[in-house]
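Input record (Table S2, row 620):
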Amino acid sequence: MRKLLLYFIITLGYSVHIISTLPQTQSTLENEEVKALAFLEEEDRLLAEKCFQAAEANWNYNTNINDVNQEKQLNASLEYSKFAKISWQNLNSKFKSWSNFKDPDLKRRFKKSTVLGSSALPEEDLVQYNQLESDMTKTHSTTKVCAFLDSTNCNLSLDPDVKKIMKESRDEHELRHIWTEWHNKCGNRIRNPYQQFVKLSNQAARLNNFSDTGAYWLREYESDTIKEDFDQLYETLAPLYKQIHAYARAKLRYVYGDQFSSDGLIPAHLLGNVFASSLDGVYSLLIPYPQRASVDVTNEMKAQGYTPLKMFQKSEEFFTSLGLIPMPQEFWKESLIVKPKDREVVCHATAWDFCNGKDFRIKQCTEVNMRDFITVHHEMGHIQYYLQYKDQPHIYREGANPGFHEAVGDTLALSVQTPKHLKEVGLLDQATQIDDYETSINFLMAIALKKVASLPFAYIIDKYRWAIFDGSVDSSRMNSHWWKLRKEYQGVKPPVERSEENFDPGTIYHVASHVDYSRYFAATIIQFQFHRSLCKEAGQYDPQDPSKPLYNCSIYRSKAAGSKLAAGLAMGASRPWPDVMKSMTGQEIMDGSAIREYFKPLEEWLAIKNAQLGEVPGWD
Ligand SMILES: *[C@@H]1O[C@H](CO)[C@@H](O)[C@H](O)[C@H]1NC(C)=O
Ligand SMILES: *[C@@H]1O[C@H](CO)[C@@H](O)[C@H](O)[C@H]1NC(C)=O
Ligand SMILES: *[C@@H]1O[C@H](CO)[C@@H](O)[C@H](O)[C@H]1NC(C)=O
Ligand SMILES: *[C@@H]1O[C@H](CO)[C@@H](O)[C@H](O)[C@H]1NC(C)=O
Ligand SMILES: *[C@@H]1O[C@H](CO)[C@@H](O)[C@H](O)[C@H]1NC(C)=O
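Output record (2-acetamido-2-deoxy-beta-D-glucopyranose complex):
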């Protein structure tokens, strides 16, 4: 789940054509600024054209993987990069004194525009860089594994087969088999290309004057202390995670007793998804009060004949109920929302901005279930952001920081999943009792297993990659270091022995496709800050009023909440994110207090429950 980043990563193209028309005379700074602005404006237009072509070729490849389309995509990407590079060179040589510009907005645009990304590589290296990235994505999307106890069926794909088995099977041997198949067949093949790729990626970062790829990625937070800030945020939330981990361990031990030893770690194949990235896949084993209402309305969706299209329409209806922008016609016409049977596609859900202010699409192999319903909102949140900032200069058409972009749809989904909203839209029966303590705990558990349980995972993926990028972990520890972090922060261990033949992080889409992941860590924090602020705006939450707890808030139909959200999104990246955050939440920082407040009743429940179970939070 991510927005499509490629065209933001390779950022601006500055055409050579316009340069020759600019007078070369010495001028005052102000004149220089007028010229600079005219230059940027013209570039925006040219850029949109080029960007559209590259995006279209990329879309065609992602929705129809074959060698011809891959070659077209690589060609288009290279052409875009060449255009971007020449223009960037012109920009740098023509406006050397931009850092003395007086106009803060113009200066900001230049500051962003002088970072070129991978296009800075010499052509030969860039070709290799693109090829490696494309091949790793292809490997990840097309890897097939063999079914359990049936070596004649080796046609299982990640989406939907592997995901389904890891979520639904309770046969430990089958889970272990599928987990091992997937990790060996996908990860091992990505290990070598990834090592080559890292060298090129670091080279590109250095050409952009960053020490390595990690520093290049983190520039988007515009803060020198961002790593420490993430560490601190993680520390704030670790106690809550440890309670959830302990409770999950106790419950999973009932089911898979012999898999657990005294170290307190949970084997990675038992968490309900092949990445062990969260715990929502085993909600049915962990539900606190099974006799009470569950907020997993998958069965009800199926009974009511939900289709992927209906899921998208329902999601859109939530956005428009807030007064937000409806999905444009092109969206409904061009999006791919069901996995096609006649060709390979990159199933990983993505939201696309074609840079022309008109064409926006989602690609998702949607299945009819609650999890995918939430994913639809997530992806549509990206489209909403694209729509809100589409009239900004191209360079500002991105999230205030990467976490903002990932947080928008999730923020709405926090309302969508409340029992009262599900009842309101007929996904919970009218007769269902929802206002009792037990139902609230069931609900909070469902949300926590997805959000809180994903925090350590989201935290360590980039912590791991920063260490690979800066060279502090070399190839002799590429896989073992991953498991070291997994154990330390997540309390998870591999179900079978791993070695340096393996490359288990490579089984994660964002590693294979080279997308940063701290965005999801940030987003999980930010969405609760957004939720808290929008809920106040909607009159649905009051910290002084115990009958209006944060978790029970739904902003459905609140135009006040919608306009507050829209105003923040429309700024794009035109201001440093603390300013945008301030306008949306009154705070200037990413802050874990909202998430702790939201889950407070669950945290109290867990402390008591774990004590009753004799389960001590933490591990060796
Ligand atoms: C997939 O790509 C191939 C090769 O470019 C093309 O012939 C075919 O029509 C495409 N299929 C679809 C459904 O677009
Ligand atoms: C890609 O570019 C190369 C070199 O310009 C060209 O020979 C080839 O035909 C192009 N491939 C496609 C599929 O357009
Ligand atoms: C495996 O799946 C591919 C497409 O996903 C299909 O073309 C092929 O026929 C399948 N093979 C078997 C043995 O089922
Ligand atoms: C990197 O820094 C050097 C020296 O300060 C400078 O000459 C060069 O233009 C910079 N490159 C970029 C891409 O900013
Ligand atoms: C949730 O809010 C509704 C009103 O919107 C209220 O009737 C209900 O009692 C609240 N439930 C909880 C658990 O606070």
